[in-house]
Write a structure and sequence with these properties.
With about 900 residues, the protein is of the alpha+beta class. The chain contains 25 helices and 22 strands. It is globular and about 115 Å long.
Amino acid sequence: MKPKQSGSPRTDGPPRWASRLLEWYCKPSLYEDLQGDLLEYFERNVEKKGVLRAKLIYIVDVLKFFRTYTVQKPQIFKGMNQFILLSNYFKTSVRSMARSKLFTTINVVGLAISMSVGLLLIALLYDIQKIDDFHTNKDRIYRIISKRHVSNGGVSNFATASVVAAERVREEVPGVEKVVVLNGGLTGDVSLDERAISVGGFFASQEFFDVFSFDLKRGNPGTVLAAPNTVVLTESTAKKLFGDAEAVGKTIFFENAGRGSAVADKSEYLVTGIVKDVPPNSHLRFNLLVSYATLEKPGSDASKQDWLKDMMSDNVYVLLDQNNSREVLDRNLERISSKENAAFKNAGTTVTVRAQAFNDIVPGPHLINWRGPKLEANTVNILIALVVVIMVSACFNYTNLSIARSLTRAKEVGIRKVVGAGKAHIAGQFIVEAIVISLLSLCLAILLFFPIRNEFLQLNEFASGMVSLSPSLALFSLFGVFAIAIGILAGMVPAISFSKIKSLHMSGRLSNRPMKGLGLRRTLIVLQYAFSLAFITAATLAYKQFHYSVNFDLGYDTKNVLNIDLQKNNPDVVIEQLSQLNEVEAVAQSFSVMSTGYYWYTQVRYLGDSAYFNFNSIDENYIPLLDHKLLAGSNFHHMAGDVKTAGVIVNSKFLERLHLGSPEEAIGKNLYFSGVGESNVREQILGVVEDFHYGMLDSPVEPFVFRYAPQNYQVVNVKLKEGELLAAMDKIEKIWNEVDPGHPLKAEFYDRRIEMAYQEYLTMVKVVGFLAVISLSIASLGLLGMVVFTTESRMKEISIRKVLGATEGSLLYLLSRGFITLLLIAGSLAVPATTWVFEKKVLSNVIYKAPVGPMELLSGGAFVLVLALIAIGTQTLKAARTNPAQILRNE
């Protein structure tokens, strides 16, 4: 009943508190009618008895209706009902799991194995989002990176940029608050009195502490790096040098630091600041910072800026003001690139700079000249995809076994529906059951997480310390949420399927066909084994490519060649000592170790044509030691260390690029070199060697130049005699300790160095191979469960066939042929698809790919098939050997 509406609105209504009291205690189903009646009586009493008495009567009526049949249940009892319902679901789930111990074990173990990898991924992502998060201005910081286009079509991406770009951005781009330039060529020994330690860091411009939030303990942030020959030490470095004494204002000596004549020798530096040690989650790592002004002193190489030559030396960071956007910066960088490249239009090379968000540096794209720890975004994305596949495969197990057991559970569901359970109640029960299994799996997964974590951190990509995967309360909370989410995901399909069962399915003939899940079960088995075979095939192809890469014919001989880092020691002293060893066959010197991913280039001009070419500085012993084949001309001859021009040796590709004719015709022709510290230096072609691979297998054979430059030698190349490697290493280490007792020997065999250059393939083998084992284990557990259920449900059929004369072999064929067919389908899908993805996507940039034969493609499938036959055969033979009388005696 609704209250009557008067002709004009009345200002005197019933007491609000009484109306609210009525609304609070009254049942929703009675409230509207009861309130309408009370309001109608109130209006009537106002007209007859007045407002005051009407209000009193209204209050009394509200209190009078506070009866058991009108009062709604308190919220706490509603919550209690939900708790009782969930408690009932939990008890039912535990009882169901106890009745099916085998299937419960398969589900728990399968989920635990997969969840352990999921926990690893969660910990990794949790640590990744904390990388560089301590910088206050991280959302406004951008790094300037470079893309180099060479006239022959080659494109390279660099983490560095020319200092010219920094100057142009500082002067021409609006909205730029600060620009920081870092040069990473800072390594050497810091000494004070009798103490000396090896350090590394950056030459940094004076805006460093205005842009980055490293904790400067002592010193003025704006001036500590302003003057030449000033240095900022980390707390641990200062402690090693000065102990507990004050370091600021003191001088230290820095030997062999950086590039150029201004800093090449032992120099004196003033300590102007002390900074807290660099956090492990920083992509910038240093023990000390030297002012960039030191490099810019007149006469140093850094004072000669060049858009093309200088683009491989410096990292440039930009801090935008709060009102500026990245789009403005990108447009200006494009304009600056066009303007600068126009001045070098005849160089055959262009460099384009662009902005990279600070948060996209780690993880980020693959870039050349990266300094410090790195983690590529592709690696993280691939890991996420692989772990998702593993988790989905484990969820398939639960779904598959739940659907397979539908006959048993259908009677239970039917009874529940008869006594009044709705679809939501049935679905809730199975969701809770899946969550309980998932939480049990989490306990086992956490135990597996720690040993897997330790192995994971040994991989090159994650050994830098930026990620620690250390457990914490927040991380364990995420683990719990993850387990619940997996439980809901795994239980979703069975919950929906069982909730649709009608109560009639619990009786008679209909109980034999509660669910139509055969097609879904077969599909899930195929997908599970397809994932496993894909992992196995990918691991096989990755190892094949790794083996092919490290054994590839480079065009020269690296066998038994030991490369020793001179560490700025006198090469003549080291070579003289090494040459006296009987185990040493030959000794040479070079600037860099080729074919390991390091590139150095210089500009070469011939007549009107010029281009940039990769080069290496070597001595006269290098070419015969590595067995390079001379096509024409002669090798270098020994010359004094201060020689300016000694000729060059080039390869055949070099002749083609500059149109120098045949090897014989090229001998004696003059070339003009312009690189770091030189301009238009004339060199004559002394010899021509066969083409060889200076780069890695992701690039073709390119033009190359050997130069004779004793001042650039940094590596001693030692050819050891066959069979005497261990003895030679002991003697070489003893010689090194006599020459340089302050530094440990840094020596590595050439073949080992090449292996490290292709370490990404080996890492891929380890990670994908590990995931293949996990995926195969999960799939095999699921297959075992399906075989057990199938044999148990067909025991009467097996017994009757055996009575009628069926042999064990025929029964084995009967029960296994369906599973074998599914495995063959999985193999026919997974192997070709994985091979195509690996060649077209993973190795898309690799020019020289390993040939793949039937053995590599079919070996994994054969192994999986044998493993599946063992699981199927053991259970099938067990069923086939059962006495039929025991099964049929009650029929």
